[in-house]
Amino acid sequence: MKFLVLLFCVLAVVAAGKNKNKAFVRKCPKVFGKTPFDQQKFAGLWHMISYMETELTEEKCARMNVTVKTTEDGATILDYQLPHKTLDGSLKTDEVYSVAEKGKTAESFAVFKQEGGQWSDPYKKYIVATDYNTYAITISCKTIFNEEKMKMDRSMCAHVYSRNTTLPQQTLEILHNIMSSYDIDTASMKIMDHSNCQ
How far is 55 from 98, CA to CA, in rounded Å? Predict the structure, then answer.
């Protein structure tokens, strides 16, 4: 717990300030992946605990199963299988394929594909914090064009995960405080429904 408090204090200092570029509605914040990071310890099953209000409005029982792979040229791949239930009870599995930046295995370029869909455009994905056994924070962001305002904008996702389907409230509040330093409105974050997931 002391580590989480310290991490929040550090991130609050280094996080980017408010955007003043008039060409942007909102810019992606400067995000830092966890260093050092052990991808093998991070692998395995995680349960989504909280997520941003603007996403996953029709899902429950969301999980993340992480597999670590290495390509022939030595690149580190984190493959994320994302099973979840829709509101009608059907099971879907989306996928994220990410290629880690050299020397920064908690920071990667990623693409996302819904079950039966097409791969998205690349975006940046970060594993901001984890103790490998209890909690994890992931943040993703990419620049997009806001046609309504005729300016650049951002598409952003942020999640808290746990090895279990719940986290102590105090731990979740600390993790949300860490996320708030990245210009994320954690007050509007939703708790994932894990009822009747069998």
Answer: 20
What whole-number distance in Å separates Cα of residue 135 and Cα of residue 192?
15
Tokens of 60: 């429950």
Return phi, psi of residue 124, to 5°. -90, 135
Separation of alpha carbons 107 and 29, rounded Å: 14
Integer Cα distance of 126 and 27 in angstroms: 16
**Could you give the 3-state DSSP secondary structure of residue 186?**
helix
162/185 Cα distance (integer angstroms): 20
Q: Tens digits of per-residue pLDDT, 147-185?
A: 888 889 898 999 999 999 999 999 999 999 999 999 999
**C-alpha 186: how far from its chain's center?**
13
Q: What is the DSSP letter of 133?
A: S
How many other C-beta atoms are found inside a 10 Å radius of the C-beta of residue 141? 23
Helix locations, the chain, DSSP H: 2-14, 39-42, 169-180
Prior bond of 168 cis (ω within 30°): no
Q: pLDDT (tens digit, 9 = 90+) per residue, 43-85?
A: 999 999 999 977 666 789 999 999 999 988 888 999 999 999 9
- pTM of the entire predicted model: 0.84
Match 């603007």 to its residue by tokens: 54
Rounded to a whole number of angstroms, the distance between the first and last alpha carbons of the chain is 31
